[in-house]
Amino acid sequence: MAYSFPEEVLEYVFAFLSSDKDRNAVSLVCKSWYEIERWCRRRIFIGNCYAVSPQIVIRRFPEVSAVKIKGKPHFADFNLVPEGWGAYLYPWISAMARSYPWLEEIKLKRMVVTDESLELISKSFKNFKVLVLSSCEGFTTDGLASIAANCRNLRELDLKESEVEDLSGHWLSHFPDNFTSLVSLNMSCLGSEVSFSALERLVSRCPNLKTLRLNRAVPIEKLPSLLRRAPQLVEFGTGAYSAEIRTDIFSNLVEAFSGCKHLKSLSGFWDVVPAYLPAMYNVCSRITSLNLSYATVQSPDLVELISQCPNLKCLWVLDYIEDAGLKALSSYCKDLQELRVFPSDPYGAEPNVSLTEQGLVTVSAGCPKLQSVLYFCRQMSNAALIAIARNRPNLIRFRLCIIEPQAPDYLTLEPLDTGFGAIVEHCKQLRRLSLSGLLTDRVFEYIGTHAKKLEMLSIAFAGDSDLGLHYVLSGCESLRKLEIRDCPFGDKALLANAAKLETMRSLWMSSCSVSYGACKLLGQKMPRLNVEVIDERGPPDSRPETCPVEKLYVYRTVAGPRVDKPDFVWTMDEDAALRLS
Amino acid sequence: MEGVMSHESDLNLKATELRLGLPGTEESTAKNNKRASPELVDDGQLFKLESDAKAGDRETAPASKAQIVGWPPLRSYWKNNVQSKKTEAETGNYVKVSMDGAPYLRKIDLKIYMGYSELFKALENMFQLTIGEYSEREGYKGSDYAPAYEDKDGDLMLVGDVPWEMFMSSCKRLRIMKGSEATGLGCGA
């Protein structure tokens, strides 16, 4: 019976629910549970900042202490979303400053953050603790100075891979002398040199510092001084890891690293001089995460390092590792869960390293816990994909980028449909998939039939007709995000599956064949979707209705059409359809 | 009136459109609805660019393939961090060379020289002078000129003291000094 427990008891029970899914489910049980839940939800996640407005959020959840918001669509990472599209943080901060004075955490991804917003954050929330800016832009180091100066209880400042206008390194010196609460600092994306003595003092006086990711400007000779002051570090990112070979630098580094008995994660390594890698060897046995994606070092040096890390769970590395290095990885690192291999020369016409599909096959065979893969390579075969699928049915994320668009199976010259088909058929828990290479509608038939747990799908230069899109939209039950570029998908599949779009977070289609007329129709049919046409050629009604739009971004929303659109974005809504026809 | 405005394709505006690029080349976005056969994608475009280049056109196509926007899918943040080292490797290490008394400076690419002797030969050629013999004790003997360089810290150093590789990475600009100023540098005093 709904009234068998007093409110306080229910609230107490709900406090144990951390997952949003669970809380959302609880709030649907009955009105009283909805009420109780909304008053005690402390952490909110907004997967698309335009799906809801700050006012709606605040009205429903009056006492929030942690907010996570995502802005631009994923393809913005590859410059497909024009500058000025949106995802501004300011309206959120200004609303939350009034209603959530006790807000502690703000985590953002792909949002436009200004110095003004940062200053407002630093002055509005007295107990502010955590700021994570992942792939954000729009702010300068002055904004960081405000945070440093005013957030007395700051624990975490993580700039992940944001694009910051770096005016100077002076911001770090704004942390007051009595500021000691820092637990995590990631400034790896910044260019300017910070005052080293200020950094040293900061590290010295923050006994709880667990994560320190330096930027490239911190030279290797200065690392020992920092490591000695923070032997409790768990995650460490070096700066430029190079210097002339000197035994004193080397031995200082060895000693300093040995003092860090809790190090689990290493990153940084710009400009690596291989001779300095062994300085880390005595911490390698505890290392579980290694990010070498900036380390332009050859395979033998990489192998020597990796062979010291039997507990490695996550490796990000350049393709300098080559097939031989991946073979070594598969024999030394049996705990490996995540592998990302990036291309050292993505625009070169010819391969510059000996990295092929074989490397990935070997890792899939040798690493039983491998569940997450991002792999850039220049050739692939159905046979290899089938082998990978059979070896690793426990894959959760599989993102393959064959550098040449529409590259076929290099052995048979056939499309890679059967290969990817095998992936979705065997890997029943697959949640994320990125396709590449030569693909026909057939691969989408396989995906629609088998990929029942798939949540995110990225497609480029693939398919033959609308049938491909139809298979995906009608078959993938768990699909939340679909992003498509340069595919011959048009109106039919989109309109036929319009209802599906309300069950998803978003759909992105660029350089496809969706006509303006179809977009208008979709907007008209589906009032709870924002159907945004992004077109830098000018107003879509200056062209025929059958003309395909440049870019289309469709997302469900309870906030109605955006009010902050730039002049190259149009929202297709009921009124627009009537006005323009 | 809008109704009268023809479709772009009817007027064939594309033919009269002003664009940068070699005549005959298409834009590289894959708007075609057909599944591209390997020949079309790989060789068709590439051969077109190569043959046009061979025709001696000054605006030669880039050595790597025509780049598609946002492909391969790499974040520009990451590219800036890794690629910047690479482009330096490809575009050479140009430094300014000044000579005392000369009206203007020159620029040379240190990367193309195998060592000091080749560098000196090039400088002698460029400025019509002789540099003389290097000795650790006395600098450059037998000439009025001494080659000096500005290093990363901004100090003026005599060329030749350190190994070539180290010199290449620390040299920011070259200066050919003349006369008493030059000989003063190399003095044992």
TrEMBL record, chain A:
Q: Which SMART domains match?
A: FBOX (SM00256), LRR_CC (SM00367)
Q: Which GO terms describe its molecular function?
A: auxin binding
The subcellular location is: Nucleus
The entry's cellular-component GO terms read:
nucleus
Pathway the protein acts in: Protein modification; protein ubiquitination
Q: Which part of the chain is the F-box domain? A: 5-46
State the Gene Ontology BP annotations: auxin-activated signaling pathway; pollen maturation
Q: Which domain of life is it from?
A: Eukaryota
- Record bears the keyword Nucleus: yes
Keywords carried by this UniProt record: Auxin signaling pathway, Developmental protein, Nucleus, Ubl conjugation pathway
InterPro entries with a match to the protein in the record: COI1_F-box, F-box-like_dom_sf, F-box_dom, Leu-rich_rpt_Cys-con_subtyp, LRR_dom_sf, Transp_inhibit
Against PANTHER family, the record matches this protein to: F-BOX/TPR REPEAT PROTEIN POF3 (PTHR16134), PROTEIN TRANSPORT INHIBITOR RESPONSE 1 (PTHR16134:SF66)
Name under which the protein is recorded: Protein TRANSPORT INHIBITOR RESPONSE 1
UniProtKB/TrEMBL annotation, chain B:
Q: Where in the cell is it found?
A: Nucleus
- Record keywords: Protease included? no
Q: What exactly does this protein do?
A: Aux/IAA proteins are short-lived transcriptional factors that function as repressors of early auxin response genes at low auxin concentrations.
Its main localization is: nucleus
User: What cellular-component terms does GO give this entry?
Assistant: nucleus
Tell me the protein's name.
Auxin-responsive protein
Region (Disordered) residue spans: 1-48
Is Transcription regulation found in the keyword set? Answer: yes
| Assembly notes | Homodimers and heterodimers.
Provide a GO biological process annotation.
auxin-activated signaling pathway
Looking up PANTHER family in the UniProt record yields: AUXIN-RESPONSIVE PROTEIN IAA1 (PTHR31734:SF242), AUXIN-RESPONSIVE PROTEIN IAA17 (PTHR31734)
Q: Which UniProt keywords apply?
A: Auxin signaling pathway, Nucleus, Repressor, Transcription, Transcription regulation
Q: Where is the composition biased (Basic and acidic residues)?
A: 1-11
As for family, the record states: Belongs to the Aux/IAA family.
- A Pfam family of this chain: AUX_IAA
List, alphabetically, the InterPro entries matched. Answer: AUX/IAA_dom, AUX_IAA, PB1-like
Ranges of residues in domain PB1: 92-179
